[in-house]
Amino acid sequence: MVLTNATAIAVQPGDSYPLGAMVRDGGVNFCLYTQGARKVELLLFETPESPQPHLVVQLDPDIHHTFHYWHVFVMGLGAGQVYGYRVDGPYNPGNGQWFNPNKVLLDPYARAVVGWQTYARQAAIDSSDNCAQALRGVVVDPLQYDWEGDSHPKTPYAATVIYELHVGGFTQHPNSGVADKKRGTYAGLIEKIPYLKSLGITAVELMPVQQFDPNDAPSGKTNYWGYSPVAFFAPHRQYSSRQDCMGPVDEFRDLVKALHRAGIEVILDVVFNHTAEGNHGGPTLSLRGLSNESYYILEDDKRYYKNYSGCGNTLKTSAITAYLVLDCLRYWVSEMHVDGFRFDLASVLSRSTTGEPLTNPPILWMINTDPALAGTKIIAEAWDAAGLYQVGHFAGERFAEWNGPYRDQVRRFVRGDNGMARSLVDRIVGSPDLYAQSQRGANYSIHFVTCHDGFTLYDLVSYNGKHNLANGEDNRDGADTNWSWNCGVEGATHDPAVQALRLQQAKNLFVVWAMSQGTPMMLMGDEVLRSQQGNNNAYCQNNELSWFDWDAVTTQNKFLRFIKEIITFIQSLEVFKHDYPLIVTPQPILEPAIVWHGVRLGTPDWSHYSHSLAYTLAYRKYDELLHIMLNAFHNPLTFELPPLPVGQYWRRIVDTALEAPEDFCPIEVAPKIDSNVYQVEPHASVILMAR
To answer: Is 381 among the catalytic positions?
Structure first.
């Protein structure tokens, strides 16, 4: 039956595949998965903000229902149509059932989401009708876009440098130079691609751009980071300068196309571990009202959700969720042309439907082996909020991993902790102690010193403790263990000695990062010493605290130059493009190799109280010979230098104790070292290259 306030429309039974709203000749096929529903209504709206539907299509369970799939083909519709659903069934939270026909539900497969101008999160929580304040999907025809011959850069891991970037925060600052309408948008980011290209990075890892709920935050705050998804297939509308129905989809594709033209890959930070529906007191937006038990892991008391995500609920790795995830990933690759994914709290995906860890999680092996994803980068944050830590043994054969031990141990060594020299050895060569069993190459270690979650680089050398009072949680949120050092003064200071030491420590961290095997990742703004004033959990800070400060490109131009030169340098060397751990040898050989030293040649000091390390990197095939010296001690240390053939000299590329521009000298102008020893100043790092 068709109910209408205007003219009746023609419908056909439709098909149970594919899920979502698909444009076909003559109309649109709608298909929805909902287990246990007794009644389904398709709501069609004239505009994104229409308070009530223009047409309501009641799906006949005898005609439009196959197994758990409800489907209908509506003739005469096309791209741009705004729609939603009402679903009726048992309301029994004690049995895990949350059907409520008063709630307008968003299609989990919606390619675009509208209704934000009138959306009210609270209206989706109480029991009343929320139609006028509900989110709606938009029918998208992916064929209505010209990719202009776009192709994936396909940069190998061994040549990749990742830049973790927040789309909104990158250009939101008033000093960005971007027009007001484009600030904080995909279009604004396009204007900054020349900057990214000049930095030398090869991939941007975009913090969540799957449509999320900015209102999923404490009262008076905004969910800035975006780890609160409501629609997995849809680009976040608030990041689009175009607010027409198709605007975010097309503008995101414009961004991908422009980045590809610059040779930069696009990696999405995807969130498949939870949704914005939160705990039992959260809103009914989509999955909860469609098939709560199918999509979420529930407690024994089914009114409540198991919370392995730390965000109130946990997606269940059921068959239907697996289909959702795989369909979503394929869509972003095939129709949106992205190059890879970073899976937030990926260990959640290795849990069973009841929450226990699995040895061979089906959903992860499906991702591993899916042919549509074969050419993409897949990266796991190999832990979850409930303590399941899987770095080094994450399921599958293809997943690279965020290397948490690298972050922690590099921080500890550089700040001068005892007992770190031996641990640093493994991190520098791609963590074979973690990855040897999985037989994955060294470049499957995504090594980083900072990321969005925690201190920025400059805060890491400026604060001993977190300062998160602005978040409104009495400084209880955020990590308490940061392995940071304020260099003698907590926070901002005008003391030139402290400022100089902080700058030096920041350079030291970048040197170790650059001189390590694996795939390096850096955080947006670290290259210009961006500070969050000690806030290590700025998830709700959509303001200048989190935004990229474009004035710093000028004020911190000396440090920025150092970072650019470092990245250019490592990108030019074949020794860092080798996919397996370097051969440890007492003498350089033809193959890529590393020789460990201390202040004395061939005698590394890995004792508990050692604060120094030296090593020689060699790739004779390409005539590459480097010598790196790290001094995390508070006194200068004199290091012996390896002898060189007659006519060759060590040349100083980097000395972090020197002021710019002497802190980095390209090999063409690098000064020659006439001695067989080199004094490394306290808290300093040195890179020499033979020529």
So the answer is: yes
